[in-house]
Amino acid sequence: MHLLRLLLIISLVASCSQDSDPSPTPTELYFPPIGTTAWETVSPASLGWNTAKIADLDAFLETSGSRALIVLKNGKIVVEKYRGKQFDNVTDFGVTSNWYWASAGKTLTAAVVGIAEEQGLIDLDEKASAYLGAGWTSLTLEQENNITVRHQLTMTTGLDDDVPNRDCTDPECLIFKAAPGTRWAYHNAPYTLLDGVIANATGKTLNAYLNEELKSKTGMDGQYIQTGDNNVYYSTARSMARFGLLLLNNGKWNDTPVVPEAFVTLMKSSSQNFNPSYGYLTWLNGKASYILPNTQVSIAGSVSPSAPADMFAAMGKNGQIINVVPSQNLVVVRMGDVPDTSLVPFLFQDDLWEKLNEIIPD
Questions:
Q1: Which residue in 65, 165, 256, 278 has a CA-CA distance of 20 to 30 Å to 295?
Q2: Which positions ≥6 away from 268 have C-beta within 8 Å?
């Protein structure tokens, strides 16, 4: 009798297990060690990828002026390709070569702000003038005090982006257009001034704070370098990949918290309703519409229809790209020259994913 009862219970448990749809156990991510160039690899063939199509990817990289491409799966390198020359146009581009992130560096800056916020050094809803000082714009004091750090992170300051030099951070270049939070506009100058917010809030230079709070904990290399009106990050492609891996793991490097998980969630979520494809200085795929830089036209559809819908991205001029795909534990990094003339390489990114889709199984 007891045996029959036990068998019945086992049968019911098995039936419930078959009917339910439990979430799969997440694959453990690999993190390359800090302070060394060691990085585990895995072959595309062992993952069941279509290796016959890699030659087409190579041809695409060659014709698009690419310098570096790295594809990580579960943190391990599956594809790593270098071509072309370094800035000196003599030395071949390789693992130790540095290149600029352009606006892909915005996403890194956002992460640094998130760290400072968790430490209580920055309040996102505090007026920006609390960190930059009064008179950082040409607005009235009342208008200026309405602009917060959060507005800077979400491109909603209301400052006029239709000025001769959108990169200029001088007060005379920062003109009132609309009330903060009432429009979205891709405007470099208010973003660049986040560097001053970080420095004044932390009492350290942007590079010093970045080194202490993020680079030392992830093994990233590189630094921000003043380039014209902009503060541009330069690093190796592998440093880009480390940052992508950090975001893939929701701000933790292995088990070490670096960027607060709650802030990473803000980065990869729609930050306002005007452009749902923009989070906190991060581009989002799979949304209903997006706005191109320097326009106010909302375009129906995803930023990159060929890419996975859950992908989020750091993107910069001339095709500097960090793509993070949580559903597939993928990170894709690309550095290089001009594939098109856009400030943000939407079309190039989509073309790249057309090639990757031929290689990576759905």
A1: 65
A2: 247, 279, 282, 284, 312, 324
